[in-house]
Design the sequence.
């Protein structure tokens, strides 16, 4: 199956790397064609054209993936999934994309929420031979899961969390997706992949 994915990140962005990796864990035979649109406003404005292109390139389905609370949000700004979805649907309509094989996946709050669900994977990335880390408590990111990871990395490694490096490392340490399946946005993502 050939799946197109549209992201609100750059070509080497964490969302793209993590979602592609997890999609291959879910569906090893998957062929992925990704389009990165840099940020949420660009994704909302240009996802219709990108989806039309991916469908013309033979994708069986297209998944549009965005963070409800992107890292660049303004303080006090409260995003709305329905407003985002409506704007994306309008962009699809304007690009004359009416396929029932285009799906929307809104990650609440942001990708790092998925990474917090598997504390053993996170512990593995935070650990060194000299300083093993064992996170035993369940982690919740709330509206800023990236801040939780920033704090954990600073506390356990003395280095900052870098989503471009650490996001994919954490994902690659996830051995069993059952913990992630407790996260509603990951469940939706996995349903659209499989």
Sequence:
């Amino acid at each position: 199956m050939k799946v197109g994915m549209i992201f609100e990140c750059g070509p080497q962005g964490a969302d793209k790397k993590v979602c592609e990796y997890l999609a291959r864990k879910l569906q090893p035979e998957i062929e992925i064609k990704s389009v990165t649109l840099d940020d949420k406003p660009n994704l909302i404005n240009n996802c219709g054209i990108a989806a039309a292109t991916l469908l013309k390139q033979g994708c069986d389905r297209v998944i549009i993936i965005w963070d409800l609370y992107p890292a660049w949000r303004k303080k006090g700004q409260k995003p709305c999934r329905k407003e985002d979805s409506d704007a994306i649907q309008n962009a699809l309509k304007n690009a004359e994309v009416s396929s029932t094989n285009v799906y929307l996946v809104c990650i609440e709050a942001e990708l790092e929420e998925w990474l917090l669900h598997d504390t053993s994977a996170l512990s593995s990335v935070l650990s060194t031979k000299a300083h093993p880390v064992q996170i035993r408590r369940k982690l919740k990111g709330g509206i800023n899961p990236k801040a939780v990871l920033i704090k954990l990395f600073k506390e356990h490694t003395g280095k900052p969390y870098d989503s471009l490096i650490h996001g994919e490392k954490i994902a690659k340490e996830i051995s069993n997706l059952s913990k992630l399946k407790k996260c509603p946005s990951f469940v939706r993502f996995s349903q659209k992949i499989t």
